[in-house]
Amino acid sequence: MPCDDPLETRPRDEVHYLRKQRPPSVHDKASRPKQPGELQPNRQTDFKSTPSKIARNLLAYNRDSIDQARLTGQQWDHIDLYENIDDPAYLAKEETFYRWYENPIDLPGRWYLQVIEQLFKENRLAKGEFIGLGRKLDLRDITCSTYLLAGAADDITTPEQVLDAAKYLGTPADRIVQETVPGGHIGLFMGAHTLKEHWPPIARWIVSHG
Q: Rounded to whole angstroms, how far apart are CA atoms 176 and 148?
């Protein structure tokens, strides 16, 4: 009887080949320089670890097209998941993470719309026009020592956006540290490598400037 599971149509050595082509800018690897005019690929948010979705992402690329196609972080996640599909510990870790990731806080609709309109679309905070608790907030009122930490693969708050904050603060330039480290949006604060290698020095910096 023919097998309906598309996973069976892709030998594991093909998956290993795809994984070796993982670009360095994905997850915790060192980021390659972004080319002029190039947009950061969006990381899709509808990840579901079902065999059919994994297979569709895997089978969308083959040896001939992998060098031309830039897979998203989600598609590399699918490759990793397929490669570790027989590892109960790995699957338990992935299930725990995505159970948390796919169940965000249920925010009040009015508050959410105000954030989208006033902060993202109108950029009021950067312009010094945002009203909070009845008074206008100006980023130049921030004059303390500041550490700006960006994730090289962060496609939600890009390094350019994070580091650009320096010119809006009232803190003197010699008291602002700007650093870009490997990792994405969540990995910047929760990634094992970032927590081990980058946050301890930052904690010491905070103590020394307290």
A: 7
